[in-house]
Each structure stands twice: as C-alpha cells, then as structure tokens.
Amino acid sequence: MKKIYYIFLLLILLPSCRPDLNYEIRGYTEKIIVEGYINNGEFAKVYLSLNVPLWKDIDSVTVLENVIRTAKISISDGSKTEILTGGFWDYSHFPPHLYKGFDIKGVAGRTYSLKVEYSGYSVESQTTIPYPIDSLSFTTSDLSTNDSLQILTATFYIDPARKNSYRAFTKKKKDGYYIETPILYNADLSLSGMNSFNISPKPSEKDSSYSEGSYFAKGDTVLVKLCAIDSTSTQFFKALTLFSTTVGVGDLYFIGEKDALKSNITSPGFGIWSGGNIQTRTVIIQ
C-alpha cells in the first residue's frame, strides 16, 4: 500500500493550513481527505488531512501541518459502533498520523459505515468486505533474458457475481516491506472462472530489489498478499491508476481533487474508505 501513501500526499494538496475547515477559499474548495481501510480479521485504520493549496510550497512540513489530529471518527457494523482512537504514528505511511480501532474487526460479507466529524462538518461513507479468493495458487517460470530471475504468477477462481477486483503486494526480505504491483486485476469486473495474473511489483531506485525490476530472484522467500476489494473501491483504485499513468506522476503524487477519481466519501470530503479481504501466502522462488 506504499503507493497510496504517496498518492495521498498530493491529494492532500489544495487549500489552507488553517486548523479550522474553511469550505470555500480563493477559488478552491477545502476538503477533508480520508484514507481508510478495514480488512478481514483486522481493526479499522484511518488517516486524515486537509488538502493543501497549489500555490503553497509542497513539502513534508506543509503536509504535516495539514494533518487532522482532532477529528471524531466512528465506524459501525450495523449492530455496534466504535469511536476510533487517534494519536498513533505509523511511520510506514505518509502522513503518519493514524486513527485506529480496537473493538470492531472486519468480517467477510459485512458492510461497515464510516463517519468523520471535524470543524463543524461531517463526512460519511460505506464499504463491504468481500469474501476470500477461491482456489489460490502460485507458480514460477523462467525469465528468458535472465536465468537468475523468475516470473511469479497467481492463479485463482473469479466469481463474476461477486463483482470484486484484486490488488497484489509482495514483500522480499531484502526490502522488508510490501511493494504493490501497480495493476488492478479484474478492473473491468468482467472475468470469470480460473484466471492467471503475473505478480509484478514496481520497486523504486532506493529499494534493495530495484535491480530485479518486476521479477524475483531464485531462492528468495517472498510474502505475497492478495487483497479482494468490492466494486465501489474498484472504481476508485481503477481511476487512480489511470490518472497516475496519464499525468505521469506514477507512484509519487496524487494531484488534488479530480472528477475522474471515484471517491466514496461524501462532501466536503474526498478519498476512499475501503474494505478488503486479504490472503497472505509464503512463496519460495524456485
């Protein structure tokens, strides 16, 4: 999920550093930027910021000044409600301020509502956690141009009635954290039956595995994480991928509020509240 961390750095980018939300200012609309997740067997995690005006210098100090640390965030599974606790710091994410839950865990098939209250405004959303991937297996094959590297392929069953797409992340020991494959599998929600997809992470130049590109070294032990998301989340991440490619910013920035991005957060909010069903496997590259 490293990509979304930096993508939201520039979605955080549109109005003022003021601590109170000013809904209209100098031609921009100030937004509460929401990046929230609830996965099967896990508690909710939410990151909040205000967007930053494009006329300001964009740096880590400016972004951190716009982090929202005093919001009230509640989630509900339909039978009970929990107020998330803020004040945590997640240094694998930017911006790092984290609200998290300790009571409601994600369960496949359930729908979860989110409500964020801040500065007199309230934004809301809903998401559903999909059911797990069926018949998941992995294979490796030789890369014709380099006999020390392998192509990693995931094969699993897609039920078209579920309307799910799939995100893939891999963690090599040499990197120590998950790197996303920048492809949304079944993004058109049109596939059915058994399907195979190459798992192709995109390491950056600072990553230890950069020389391996989107492939895997023989003998490596790799953690592979596949995440099923529902059709609503699919529309957001599909548009996000297309936007990043079109603008040319790749993994670095999410440039402000764009109509093409299918946010499921009510106004004056923007971003994503996404439920995921994560399955993790250990794969030895042979």
Quick take:
The chain is mainly β.
Task: Write up what this structure looks like.
The protein is mainly beta. The chain folds into 2 domains: 175 residues, no CATH class; 96 residues, Sandwich (Immunoglobulin-like). 12% of the residues lie in helices and 46% in strands. It has 3 helices and 18 strands. Strands 7-8-4-3-18-17-13-14 form an 8-stranded mixed beta sheet, with helices on one face. It has a 4-stranded antiparallel beta sheet with strand order 6-5-9-10, with no helix packed on it. A hairpin with a 4-residue loop joins strand 5 and strand 6. The N terminus is likely disordered.
What attributes characterize this protein structure?
286 residues, mainly beta, Immunoglobulin-like, 2 domains, 8-stranded mixed β-sheet, 3 helices, 12% helix, 46% strand
Q: Could you give the distance between the termini?
A: 26 Å
Count of individual domains? 2
Integer average pLDDT: 85
Q: How would a crystallographer describe the biggest sheet?
A: 8 strands, mixed
Rg, alpha carbons: 19 Å
State the low-pLDDT regions, or none: 1-19, 245-257
SSE topology string: HEEEEHEEEEEEEEEEEEEHE
Spatial order of strands in the largest sheet:
7-8-4-3-18-17-13-14
